[in-house]
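Supplementary Text 2. Reproducibility record for the structural model of the 281-residue chain.

All settings were left at their defaults, and a single model was retained for analysis rather than an ensemble. We include the record here because the model underlies the residue-level annotations in Supplementary Table 4.
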Amino acid sequence: MSEKHEVSFLHRVRSTLSDLPPAERQLGEFLCDFPGELASYNANELARLANVSNATVSRFVRSLGFDNYEQARILARKEGRTGSRLFLDHSEATADVNWPSDEVKLISDNLGRTFRRIDPQELREVARGVLAARRVVVIGFRSNFAFAAYLKWQLMQVVEDISLVPGGGETLGEHFAGLGTNDVVLVFGLRRRVAVTERLLASLVGSGAAVALVTDEGAEFRNDVKWHFRCETKSTGPIFNHTTVMALCHLLLSLAIEEAGATGRTRLQTIESLNEVFGEL
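Retained model, structure tokens:
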């Protein structure tokens, strides 16, 4: 394989399109919309779906720098497990979608599959751990930052020492230097996961802190963290559906408020009183 080996599949296709002959460009444009087709089908099936010849498929993968179709397929499969939602979308399925009813049904199915495999007692353990911890740190990179920020904002209702990572101009070392067995770290690691994720988790586990990891269903289950919750993110369209992630956040917050009892209610009342003083209600 050529030096294009380290480049992502979709980047290869997009950067090569303008130089391709018409038939190969047609296949490339098709795969830009539905890259998952290459991961799912053999060369003959892909040729039929894109309405091109088998020879065009062979020439196309060589133009991308692959020795054969199977090499291209392996990379597409790998990116389907770790990357873009586009790799999970398929042309034939898209034509049959009855939107929004199919999407609503899929949301319900996602919720059912997610919470059937989550032990409610584990959620309660996380809530108790958060309340008892010396420090609570919530981590999320890229799109995961939005989930981390939401959960941190909500947990502030009952948790006094809680921080959100990454912050502007801050380093991971500044937050993790003092972590230990009395601390809890909540990590959102849904795809696409940043390259530092594995090293980050290894460092957190090594610190002795209790780690709660939230990922999508494509992540392998981890036994090294204390809690691992996998959320179904399937969708009828080209983007992930994160309804289950928000539901998980809601349940964790509800349990934390319940477990906080009178102390939690006192803090909530104090917050409301101060908001009234500052005119922030």
